[in-house]
Amino acid sequence: MEPAPQPSSSQIPDLVRIGAVPTDTAINVQTDILDPVIFSEREARFVLDNKGILHSNSRITFSTAGDTGTTANGRAFFPAGVGVHSLIQRAALRIGTKTVCEIEDYAHFAAYETTFLPPDAINEREGVMSGRMMAIAPTLDERSASFATASNSASITESVTEAKSIQIDNGTSTTLSGADSEYWKPIIRTVDPDPSRVVFDYQKESNKPTYSILIADLFPFLKTNQLPMFMLREQVSIHLTFTPYASGVISSRVSNTRGTDLTKDASLVRNDCQMISDYIFYPQEMMEQYRQANSNMQFAYVDYQFVKRTVSITEFSGGLIQNVGGAGRVVNKVFVGAQVGQDGSDSLLNNYTADGPLISATTTGKVTTNLKYNDNFLYPIDVSNDARHYHNVFQSEGRVPYISRDLYRGEGQLATDNVDTLGAVEFEDFSAKTDLRQKFFYTAYRLNKGERVNSRGIELYDTRTTMGASSTFRCWLQVMKVASLKDGMFSMAFA
Prior knowledge:
The chain folds into 2 domains: 1-130 and 199-294, Distorted Sandwich (Adenovirus Type 2 Hexon, domain 4), CATH 2.70.9; 296-403 and 440-495, Adenovirus Type 2 Hexon, domain 4. The chain has 9 helices and 28 strands. It is mostly beta strands and 495 residues long. It has helices at residues 106-114, 119-129, 215-218, 221-224, 284-293, 313-318, 386-397, 405-409, 432-435, and strands spanning 28-34, 38-39, 43-48, 53-54, 59-63, 76-77, 88-95, 98-104, 136-148, 155-168, 179-181, 210-214, 236-242, 255-256, 274-281, 296-311, 320-325, 331-340, 367-373, 376-377, 413-414, 419-420, 426-427, 430-431, 443-446, 458-464, 471-486, 489-494.
């Protein structure tokens, strides 16, 4: 009797590529809850078991001790733009002694990524899972308004609902009220409501909420690939470096309601710092066939290189020329943010902002940028139009940033009719006009030629007038990498 024919490699599903397995395949999922092998207020390290296939939707959970806010009305919450991601300063995924992915200033990176989350995803999922609250929605202003008739001076009073401003919408409600009259139409005026919108009780640090972060958000390798742990002969570990904890100084981890004790920080609870790991198991025969057919396999993925420095007002206004690296690498995109000053816990977004030049009734700051690599400029003419800057972010990511032009560039106030798109609504006593306006000014560049950058690297040309103060310049380069798994041993190199 002849042995049954073995399936060809083309007939074996790609078990590690997301979305490649037939839906009718039998799957067993085993969930482990891992405690860190190393834990402190400064760092944590998790060691994973070499079994099954690690699901990219595995999570790491965190909670804090609720040691914030000492006054009767005092409360603290994770920054609206990043949520619990503010705890992570650096994240690294290692296999054996080799670093597969590593990202610096992760909380600032997460602030950029949050801008692409739809408001419904933030309200329905992220507000509960990660504490992010940057969903922007219209403010409904309900008031009584008086109208005059054309034939006489008698007036008619009607109830009018207007939506002439926007604000953070975390699902709580705020009703604006007031009354005024104008011939033929309701008058437009600013109303300062009291009280302001507030966080939910479960989001207050005093109630010790437990949040989580997807490991795929930490490591871009896992957005397109799942780790075949059962094929690895080396130890897989996740290393986290936390944002510094420093009770007695302004915190970089949380935001405190304005007017409260700002020197309280949020210490981590060791027992709640855990990794919830999902391991996927297919039928044993299928997994063994996959192992034999892929004794030497490759993964293409992206990783990030990071540049950070302080830039003075003079340097920006005179025209910054900064080499951001990338020499010898295939670079897909570059994105940049400049943070002015250090707001810390006395702000709605904490320090996780990207500020643009000042704009006011008398001042109009300007940003002019370009990118040079392989002896050519990316754009034939420098980009100075703010709409182009916004478009370039969309073009680089292939995703629409869910932020208004006021949040992006501070252009939402129309002096002619005294309408302000951010209105007078406050959030936890923070004014949107000061804490949200022009706090999301990122610039981005798509390098679409797919060519390797020469030894000179990439030069960023960035001129900004009226920055107001020295800035922390941050730049991330998305680079292509290739990983190989041969006989259970993992290696990687730049593409």
